[in-house]
Amino acid sequence: MKILVLNSGSSSVKFQLIEMAGRAVLARGLVERIGVPCGLLRYEAAGREALERKMDFPDHKAAITRTLDALTDRSIGVIPELSSIGAVGHRMVLGGPTIRKAVRIDEAVVKLVEEYVKLAPLHNPPTLTGFRAASSLLPDVPHVGVFDTAFTAGLPATVHVYPIPYELYENYGIRRFSYHGTSHKYVARRAAEFLGRDPSDFRCVTCHLGNGCSILAVKDGSPVDTSLGFGTVAGLMMGTRSGDVDPDILLYMMEGLKMGVEDVRRVLYRESGLKGVSGVSNDLRDVERAADDGNPRARLAFDMFAHHASRYVASTALSLEGRLDAVVFTAGMGENSSRMRTAICRRLALLGIRLDDARNTVRGKEAVISAEDSSVVVLVVPTNEELMIALETEEVVVAPGAAL
Q: Would you list the domain boundaries of the chain?
């Protein structure tokens, strides 16, 4: 079966066409600048040079139409006709606590996603736009929603309920959701597979460290604790997001500094984290270079990030109930920064974690980077959310009835 994976943003659509027999990526690409002049289609078929085509994409339907045209084009395409596509998997973000696995998208699912627009205004609307466009162009194939929050929807009540009046949870759904679930699910499973372990008897902490960051404890295949929360700003500091701050700071910003809600939101989401502390950049590579050049704020930002990350690895590991088999690094910083992995793991020596300096030089490849005498295995596992979406889509299509 060939599955088309779509990740629709407000002005972009990422795509991959995957042959599930062998998990081969036949083609991948990105449409950018949807709805504005001078759009760009990036397209790469397996074994061929990448192509770029500039054209206008007035809406998501036009973007997906051009994508399908490229996939079936006689000179650059990889399939003879659209009927070769067996299913479409859509990356979706917030589906609430009732969606705990991938689901075939029907009216009930659409309605639920619409209800959560108020909690995910930047993410839920474009995913629905992408689904509607794709389903109109490919009406005869199953469309499956794979939600970032599905993997963590079953977090224990001790974790997902906040210590605020219970009525706010009951009446308004204020709870811990967590995100990056598709990434965490993939790397936890892949780490077990890589080590020859049974995922149902494997306990790990997965560290998704990109511009957005989250840390998750996975016990025997199920998440049991997380650094993220109701929104996408909680937990450890990130590229531009603050992570946890004292709520009294927010009250002071509004009452004492007379900042409005939108000003506070801008500070927390766009002006904090590595960027806010270093004053240099949200990109760890820039921060590392500035620190090497003697910039004290860049050095502080680097050390703070390592401190925050190690603290959450240790705290979430407590929920694994006495056994930590592995710590897994993934995403941009996790896969590529040996310096940050070293800084984090040095702070975890109390858990018996030790890195092998030579092994830890790896970038963007699966590898064990811990020393032979480390009590806990430490790995790098590049994330592959598109493959995870395809795998979950395949499960839904092969097992009819897996709908909300």
A: 2-98+130-144, 181-385
Contact 217, 316 (CB under 8 A): yes
> Considering the entire predicted model, what is its pTM?
0.87
**Listed residue (173, 130, 151, 102) closest to 34, CA to CA:** 130
pLDDT in tens, 7-55: 887 788 899 999 999 899 999 999 988 888 888 999 999 989 999 999 9
Per CATH, the architecture of 2-98+130-144 is what?
2-Layer Sandwich (3.30)
d(CA 73, CA 58) in angstroms, rounded, equals 21
C-alpha span between 85 and 72 (Å, rounded) = 11
Q: Which residues have a Cβ under 8 Å from the Cβ of 292 and sit 6 or more positions away? A: none
Residue in the block written with tokens 């710590």: 327
Measure CA 234 to chain center.
Answer: 15
Domains 2-98+130-144 and 181-385 agree in fold: yes
Give backbone dihedrals phi and psi of 79, rounded to 5 degrees, phi first. Answer: -135, 150
Token look-up 């929603």 returns: 145
First to last CA, the chain: 23
CA nearest to 206, candidates 360, 327, 368: 327
Element (H, E) at 223: strand 222-226
CA angle (246, 248, 254) in 5-degree steps:
125
140: amino acid identity, one letter: D
Which residues participate in catalysis according to the annotation?
Answer: 148
Q: CA 297, 227, 370 angle in degrees (round to 5)?
A: 75
Give the CA distances from residue 190 to residues 16, 65, 279, 322, 332, in Å, rounded to whole numbers and listed in that order.
20, 34, 37, 22, 17
Q: What is the DSSP secondary structure assignment for residue 293, as one 8-state letter?
A: T
> CB atoms < 10 A from the CB of 131, how many?
23
Confidence (pLDDT) at 68: 94
CATH of domain 181-385: 3.30.420.40
